[in-house]
Amino acid sequence: MGKAVPKSIKSRVEILLEEFPEKFGTDFDKNKQALNELDFSLSRFNRNMIAGFITRTKNSKKE
Questions:
Q1: Which among 2, 47, 21 has a CA at the least distance from the CA of 57?
Q2: Which CATH superfamily is domain 7-62 in?
Q3: 24 CB contacts (<8 Å, ≥6 apart)?
């Protein structure tokens, strides 16, 4: 069983996917790089949580 994703992460992901849908895909490492390029001041933990949730969201929409 995995960890629960906090609402703050989910809301950030929704906003990011609405504003920059072309920047993110189904690859975790590329999503981390895209977050770094957007120049948000995120901790490593939050960046990884956001990138992981974006990846999971994109993969579930793909199927």
A1: 21
A2: Ribosomal protein S17 (1.10.60.20)
A3: 16, 17, 30, 31, 34, 54, 58
Query: Is residue 9 a contact partner of residue 49, using CB atoms and an 8 Å limit?
Result: yes
1 has pLDDT over 70: no
- CA dist 6 and 45 (Å) reads 12
Residue by residue, DSSP assigns the chain as --PPPPHHHHHHHHHHHHH-TTT--S-HHHHHHHHHHTT----HHHHHHHHHHHHHHHHHHH-
- Going by pLDDT thresholds of 50, 70 and 90, the confidence category of residue 4 is confident
Q: Count CA atoms within 13 Å of residue 39 on its CB side.
A: 0
